[in-house]
Amino acid sequence: QVQLAESGGGFVQAGGSLRLSCAASGNIFVINAMGWYRQAPGKQRELVASISDSTNYADSVKDRFTISRDNAKNTVYLQMNNLKPDDTAVYYCNANILSVTLALRNYWGQGTQVTVSS
What we know:
By secondary structure, this protein is an all-beta fold. It has strands spanning 2-7, 10-13, 18-26, 28-39, 46-51, 55-57, 65-70, 75-80, 89-99, 104-108, 112-117. Strands 2, 4, 5, 6, 9, 10 and 11 form a 7-stranded mixed beta sheet that branches. The chain has a 4-stranded antiparallel beta sheet with strand order 1-3-8-7, with no helix packed on it. It starts with a strand and ends with a strand.
């Protein structure tokens, strides 16, 4: 069993900052790419940022969001600065994990709400 636990969402005014965390736990052998997705009401889930050997960002968050990871803690972070109302969404953590049973699959967190007021 592998679980992803997210934290750090909340309510913030436009221009503010939040930091999301996602910790992976369980029968983990190797964690490959990790990333953050978001889904706003009535919209499809979209990639926000990912990190493996390099980082990748959606155009809408470049220069405002920073993704990082602590491999010793199996944790990925998303630092979100200069937040805008359009950033309001449920944010989901995603990780591509090889378990100790050598099963490779993508895992999702339960989601954390980020609300940005204008």
